[in-house]
Amino acid sequence: MIEDFPDGSGFPAGLRLRSPTADDQRRVLAVLDLWWAGFGGAAGSRERSLLLPRLFFQHFTDSSFVVERPDGALVAFLIGFLSQSQPEVAYIHFVGVDPALRRRGVGAFLYRRFFTLAAARGRTRVRCVTSPGNAASVAFHTGLGFQVDPGDAATADGVPVQQDYDGPGLPRVTFTRVLTGPWEER
To answer: How many C-beta atoms surround the C-beta of residue 41 within 10 A?
Structure first.
């Protein structure tokens, strides 16, 4: 699938949406440190790269997206999948947007596209997680209608956190978004 963003979307001219391929894994890994501006230092860098093994770019391509400029430069991606063990759930695993395009609707477009795909495949909830220190991610997700799940602890500003969610010393903020209707893909 290759598709141009819709006319009137407000996105920079020529952006194209497509399904990822195995070759895209290296391209995505290459932008992580730059796009996250070193968030979490060396440990954060390693953690991010370990979250995106090649299998996501081989086995979940029909529920994931990459966005490129006309010259082929990567500007955004969303890696998501449909849960095999929870048939009502779809899961957004990892999303990134080039900082130069943030607050231009590209990330929200990718999420809405994933919501539409998930609903069309019978899913009623979308789940995802973020790091407790990523306030911008928490705001982005709640702005898209995600609810923060209850936790066993909280951040300094009161956001519920699930301690050791991804292993010892790896707390996460978890979210759930109920799918209740169609989403415009502006």
So the answer is: 8
Q: Of the candidates 93, 66, 96, which has an alpha carbon nearest to the alpha carbon of residue 81?
A: 93
Which pairs from 85-89 meet CB under 8 Å and 24+ separation?
A: 87/122, 87/123, 88/122, 88/123, 88/124, 88/125, 89/123, 89/124, 89/125, 89/126, 89/127
- 161 touches 153 (CB < 8 A): yes
Task: Quote the CA–CA distance of 61 and 96 in Å, as a whole number.
Answer: 16
Q: Report the number of secondary-structure helices (H) and strands (E) in the chain.
A: 5, 10
Predicted TM-score (pTM) of the model is 0.88
Percent of the chain with pLDDT over 70: 84
Distance, in Å, from the CA atom of 166 to the CA atom of 76, rounded to the nearest integer, reads 25
d(CA 106, CA 75): 9
Give residue-wise pLDDT tens across range 76-116.
Answer: 999 999 999 999 999 999 999 999 988 888 999 999 999 99
Q: How is residue 31 written in tokens?
A: 């932008």
